[in-house]
C-alpha cells in the first residue's frame, strides 16, 4: 500500500497538521521554523512529516522533517515526483516478493 503507516491530511485537517508539525519541531529542539506558507500534509508514525511551501505552485518541492534532525530535506521536486517514487518503490517490493515465492 502506498504511504502505509502514514496519516495524510484531508483539506479540513491542514491547520491541525501544521500545528502538529510545529509541535514536533519544538519537541525535538530544532532551531528550524516551519515557514508560515508551509502546508504539512503527511505524518508518518509521529516522528516525521512532509510539507510543501505555499506560493511555489500547485506542485512545488516536497520537504521531509525527521525528528532529531536540524532541518528538513528536500525529498522530491514535486508531489507528482513523490508519488511516482512511492509507486516505483511499491512495484520493486512486489517484484522482490514474487521472486522469493517462485524461487
Any overview of this molecule?
The protein is α+β, with helices and mostly antiparallel strands. The chain has one domain. The chain has helices at 14-27, 79-102; strands spanning 6-8, 38-44, 48-53, 62-66, 73-76. A five-stranded antiparallel sheet has the order 1-2-3-4-5. The mean pLDDT is 87.
Brief synopsis:
The protein has 103 residues and is α+β, with helices and mostly antiparallel strands. Helix content is 37%, strand content 24%. The model has no long low-confidence stretch (mean pLDDT 87).
Largest sheet: 5 strands, antiparallel
Q: What distance lies between the first and last C-alpha atoms, to the nearest angstrom?
A: 24 Å
| Beta strand count | 5
Mean pLDDT: 87
Strand content: 15-25%
Radius of gyration: 15 Å
Global shape: globular
Low-pLDDT segments = none
Question: Total helix count?
Answer: 2
User: N-to-C SSE series?
Assistant: EHEEEEH
Structural class: alpha+beta
Order of neighbouring strands in the sheet with most strands:
1-2-3-4-5
What percentage of residues falls in helices of 4 or more residues? 25-40%
Domain module count: 1
Topology (SSEs and partners):
Blueprint: E1 6-8, H1 14-27, E2 38-44, E3 48-53, E4 62-66, E5 73-76, H2 79-102
Antiparallel strand pairs: 1-2, 2-3, 3-4, 4-5
Give structural attributes.
103 residues, globular, 5-stranded antiparallel sheet, alpha+beta
